[in-house]
Amino acid sequence: LIVGKMAEKSAIPNPSEDGGEKSSEDGVPEHEFSVPKREIMNPMDMGKWQKSQAYRDYLGFVLTLNEAVKGKTRTCECHISEPTEQLLGILDTMDRWVDETPPVEQPQRFGNKAYRTWFQTLEENAESLVQPLLPEKYHSAAAEVAVYLREGVGNKTRIDYGTGHEAAFAAFLCCLFKLRIFTEKDMLALVFRVFHRYLEVMRKLQTVYRMEPAGSQGVWGLDDFQFLPFLWGSSQFIDHPTIEPRHFPQLDTVQQHHTDYMFLDCIRFINTMKTGPFAEHSHTLWGISGVPYWGKVNSGLIKMYKAEVLTKFPVIQHFLFGSLLSIQPA
Prior knowledge:
Elements: H1 2-10, E1 37-38, H2 46-50, H3 53-68, H4 82-100, H5 114-130, H6 142-151, E2 160-161, H7 163-178, H8 187-208, E3 212-213, H9 228-236, H10 251-257, H11 262-273, H12 278-281, H13 283-288, H14 294-310, H15 313-316, E4 320-321
């Protein structure tokens, strides 16, 4: 399993209190955490990204979660650890801040400037939100890990949100996994509880502050804002006895099953945001409904994620690299 290999390579040797590269008593060098920064400055750097430890670990993490949710419903029984509860609490706090930061009156229809106030609150508090998730020996990792949480909610200047921001949040979860805050038994809860709650908060931001889709391909993209819930959501449907890909554009299927299946929950949200025939406003998804099997949908979406998100310079130029997700070659 990918995750096993990842865990072997991601064991962090005794980080010191101040994050400095010191030797512990047994002579093993201690881990030095670093605040993540940009490394992909132009399209020529994309090869460096695709050969990096970060690419291998991030994609491995996404695929491990894809495997974990295969054939399972979102409301199934799953292990809820204390860090999972704490992380859900962080997302609840972020949600509450939206209620406390109502949109302002402004002439522009899109991109309400109150979002910047909300974002600033997160920026100022991200590190102190993340700190309690970390055991004392990893407290010096808070500054590194918190960056991915902050990057995972959209862009403060442009007031937009897209798959690059979604990837930053998945990278945030990946960092916590590499620190062993989460382990293999938390996989279902990370998708079905944590990521689901994250999606709820992002949808609230998108609607309350009328956020623009970042780098949207319009009608030709999979979705204006998300990708991963379609990927993991299609895995949930593999070997489903009754629901086939051709059923997901049907309103009654969506109404009946959206709480159990992330894919249908995404379709439900699209239907609340867009009007007109589904085939016209969501052309790519409509095409997917013509694929005969969910296994084929899932493998197709993995290829599409690599091609449309992970190998696209406009998305990856914003990805940040530190000591946990490193630009060093794998």
